[in-house]
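Lecture 7, part B: from sequences to assemblies.

Below are the input chains for today's worked example.
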Amino acid sequence: MSETKLIVNGEERSVEVDPNTPLLWVLREQLKLNGTKFGCGIAQCGACTVHLDGTPVRSCSTPVAAADGAEITTIEGVGNDDGMRHAVQAAWVEHQVPQCGYCQSGQIMSAVALLRDNPDPTDEDIDVAMSGNICRCGAYGRIRAAIKTAARA
Amino acid sequence: MGKWTRRGFIAAGVVSGGALMVGVGIREGHRAPKLAKMMTEDGETLVNVWVKLNTDNTITAIVPHSEMGQGVFTSMTQMLADEMDADWDKVTYEQAPAHEAYANYPLGREFLMGDTKVPGMVQDSLNGGFLRIAQSMGLQITGGSTAVRFTGMGGMRIAGAAAREMIVKAAAKTWDVPAKELRTEKSFVYHDATNRSEPYAAFAEQAGKYAPPTQPKLKSPEEFKLMGKPLKRFDIPSKTNGTAEFGIDVDLPGMKYAAVMGPPVLGAKAEQVDETYAADMPGVIKTLNKGWFVAVVADSYWQAENAVRQLEVTWSKTGAESLGQSDIYALLGQAIDDADGKGKEDIAIGNARRAAGGAARVYEAEYRVPFLAHAAMEPINATAWVREGKVEFWSGLQNPLAVRDEIAGALNVKKHDVTVHNVMLGGGFGRRSEADYPLMAVEIAKEFDHPVKMIWSREQDTQQDWYRPASISRFKAGLDEDGMPVSWENMFVQKFDPPEASHIPYKIDNQLIQHTEAEHHVRFGPWRSVDHTQHGFFIESFVDELADQAGMDGYTYRRKLLEHSPRYLTVLDAAADAAGWGRDVPDGRGLGIALVDSFGTVVAQVVEVDVTGPEPKVVHVWCAADPGYVMNPDGFTAQIESGIIYGLTAALYGNITIEDGAVVQSNFHDYPMLRMRDAPEITVKLINSGAKVGGGGEPGTPPIAPALANAVFAATGVRVRSQPIASFKQGLT
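Predicted structure of the full complex, as structure tokens:
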């Protein structure tokens, strides 16, 4: 056990855990941020995607020690400063993307990172950025369309 | 709509606080006065309540189904609100608690199926429950694509219409005007002649004094204001900001975490558990050997999961340890051999054998499909708190009422001492209609005073599933000089549900469809569209082969065999037209078509495949679907898109195999899923034929595998008779 300091959605947080604990479980169990989901545990499905210093990472396979001092953004921190939806979230509603919705936090985190780095992504760019996120409800077509809508927003 | 049977009733009354409740229910032996009495005693929970008109003029629909991605809360509420002429902006829903009052089987049993008797019911049998859903509608089951077509058509609409009629009657009495001079719109009653209008709630008390109409008048489709509209789903905003609460998100004070491990060879028991190492690991509170599984409870899930993997378990021998996948295929094939043409009859029309004997020639083929896991995104989980003889339970369930009964039975407590909280499912696909994981969670939790949340690893989720069965199907067709079939013989192994899944839509005068049984230890589970997944592939591949034998393309040949059915032809034509069937495609590409009628919905799909890469890539899927009437076009389209991707994932990659009796695959690296880069463009055409309303959740799935296999044939001349199809080139030598 050791103390790890995290900056989560702009807030400083400190946790006492085994430094090997995956960031996912610290977010969910210690910090009670349940929007980030467990899917596979081996960085295959993307349900646990969060931003670590702006980069999308799979929190199920990121030891919390690797996030010490880092800025972490989760789905709960994605909205704009005034509490409004992010353009990606608005596009997700407009296109009625989610079905079961379980993978969507991860999908949105990947999409937000994509659009920040690449405001006008091609289909190939979307393929590359989004193929790490599995959706078992098969909402891929709507995700693609929503990303393009958000890019125009 | 069918007739409203004598045993059906609509109950109504004003509950505490002045809200009007109107419910539809049917229960043998319960007469309305008795139920009215029950309602007065216990307000909301004793009747099959579907609507509540609140004093602030908002309306709450109570939906007896689970939300697992299909938008059921929205479509159910939409049907009710339309009949009620409700203001959609002021309508909300509640999910019905797990209570008999909300069970949907009476509707299915008595109203929708006339007076068809149901054998034995499924009251206490959950694991077998789904098998009988076609006969019984199960118990508050979400599955079998039943919500819109049964609960919606037989419950929500009638409740809404009855509530509206009662309010109108109350307004007529209050204003002393004839009811026929009144009109309703957006939760208000209007009397235009005197320029009066009042919200529905103003008449709730008076309306509650009336006996509900026994046969409320339902709208005809031209009168629909909400049905048929692409209303946005209630649950979607919460699924874009992390606030939607799934089973895995349940968080209780003092809660601990459990990780489990089931037997690698399904059915084995843990004989010995060496916990020497695991028990001393950080955070570990207790290790448990429950025989049918082992578990570790710890302060955090990660600690529990690490520790459970360190338990050294000696599993009992079941006799299946030597079984491999090829053995299973061999025993399935052997079962068909052993049946020797004398299986259990699904269909016998004319004399198929004699017709084949007299045919110009016969054509035969055999097809095979592998086991499939469900692989919902949310790994199996459940939370339980057992104390003082009472059980509180949280999970995402497709059959919450039966789970409650199973838990009561397993822990030997009274049913009403078990409270089941059904939370959102991160995908269901049939897996969450089983009771194994709820029982595991309560078996663990009963060892503690505090709540325990059990989470399965993805590996457990994959290896402890109830699987879409591996199956083999053999066909023989007698053909005339033009290659048209004069006979259709089919023998397949293992039949589950629904019973008509092996039937063909084509007009062939002589048919003999039979099945036989086979035994192995890999347990069956309903998997999106159940038996239609395999029979869709079998039947639609074989028809395509016959088309080729006749020198025709698959579309033209099917058209000839569907001339008797305008509905099928319309759907087939719509898919073919959308795809531009008959156009030239580039080298290395091909078009394939398939049509399957499942759960009351007719679906045809055309696949364009590109085979120039190492694996076939589906470029585009054109789909036409006729569910009779589309309640929510966008929601229905989403379900069809989803069904296509789910079926395509299985067709391309799905392959659960058995080695030394155990499931080999464990996670997404070896049980791969279709991803964004592989996802085809999908075009969906909806058809409102006016036929009896069909389902939406499953019918998109069955046609995609055969449409893909048929497209691969068109592109390559290679007939793929087994799945997974992604690896078909490896089979070429």
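Note for the exam: The two ends of chain B are 57 Å apart (CA to CA). Keep this in mind when comparing with the next example.
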